[in-house]
Amino acid sequence: MNTLTVALAQSLVVAAFFAVPSFADDEELKKDLTAVIALHGLPCGQVVAVTVQAENDYAASCKDGNKYRVYLNAAGRVVVEKQQ
Amino acid sequence: MHVVYAAVPLLLLTAGCAHVKPDTPVAEPPVVARQPGTPQPAAKPAAPATPKPEPAAAPAPRVRTPAPQTASKAAPLVAKTPATAPALDLNTLKEELRATKAIGFFTKIALKNQVDDLRDQFREYYQGKAKLTMTDLRRSYELLIMKVLSLLQDEDQKLASAIVSSREAIWGLLADPKKFATLQG
Question: With contact defined as beta carbons under 8 Å apart, do B68 and B48 qualify?
Fold first, then answer.
C-alpha cells in the first residue's frame, strides 16, 4: 500500500513536470497565430483555441468569435482564411 | 509517509511556478517606446518645410517654440541610442531575426512574405511598372518596421533597438536603385 502511494505521488509529480511544457507550447502557438492573423490585418483580438488539422495547418478560434484557417501553402506563404 | 503527502502538493506548486518567468521586462518597454522617438529625425524634414511658409502667418512664434523643444528632447535620445543599440548590417539583422525567440515560426514566415512583397513593389517601382509612389513605398516600409518592432519590443528589446537604429540605413538601401540592385543578387 505504501509503495503504491509513493509510486502514485511520484507519477503525479512527473506528470506535472511534463504538463507544464506542453501548456507552454500551446500558449506559444496561440500567440504565434494571434500575431499572424494580426499581421494579415484581420480581426481576432486573441486566439483562444487551436486545432491542428495537418502539418503547418491550423484552425484558430478567436476571442471575438472569428475563426480562421492558418496554413503554409506550397509557395511558402502563410495564408489566413476566414472560416464560417 | 505524511511527509510524502505534504511534499506532493508542494512539488506541484513549485512545478507550476517554474513556468511564470517570461513576463519580467515590465519596466523596460518605455525604453523601446522612446526609441521609436528616434525616427523624429525622419519627421524633421517635414518640420522645416512647414515653418518656411508659415512665417507670413501670425502664429509663427508658436511654431518656433515647439521645434527647439523637440530638438532638445531628441538630442539626448540620439545620444543614448547608439550606446544601447548599434545599427546592424542587413545580414546580421536577418540572422538576428531568424534566431530571435520573440517571434513565432508562423509569424516569421508571414513577416518574410511581407518583406518579399515590399521588395517586389520596389522592383516594380524601379522598372517603372508600379502604380505606387516612393512616398507609398516609404509608408509601407515604415508600417512593416512598426509591425516587426511591435512583435519584438516586449521580449527582445535589444533587437528592437537595433532595428530602430538601422531603419534609416535599411531605407537607404531600398530607396537607392543602385544599392537596391545589389540586394537582388
Answer: no
ipTM: 0.71
Q: Which residue of B has its CA nearest to A23?
A: B19
Cα–Cα dist B93/B97, whole Å: 6
Which residues of chain A does B103 touch, with a Cβ-Cβ cutoff of 8 Å? 35
For residue B145, the tally of other CB atoms under 10 A from its CB is 18
* Spans of chain B, pLDDT less than 70: 1-85, 184-185
Which member of B11, B15, B106 has the closest CB to residue A70? B106
Dmax (CA) of chain A: 60
B167 vs B93: CA distance, rounded Å = 11
Q: Please list every residue in chain A whose beta carbon sits closer than 8 Å to the beta carbon of residue B15.
A: 13, 16-17, 20
Sequence-separated (6 or more) residues with CB below 8 Å from residue B125: B132, B134, B137
Q: How far apart are CA A39 and CA A45, in angstroms?
A: 12
Q: Are B5 and A9 inside 8 Å of each other by CB?
A: yes
* Pairwise CA distance, residues A68 & A80, whole Å: 6
Cell digits of residue B35: 526609441
B127-179 pLDDT tens trace: 999 889 999 999 999 999 999 999 999 999 999 999 999 999 999 999 999 99
For residue B163, give the nearest of B177, B174, B153, B155 by alpha carbon.
B153
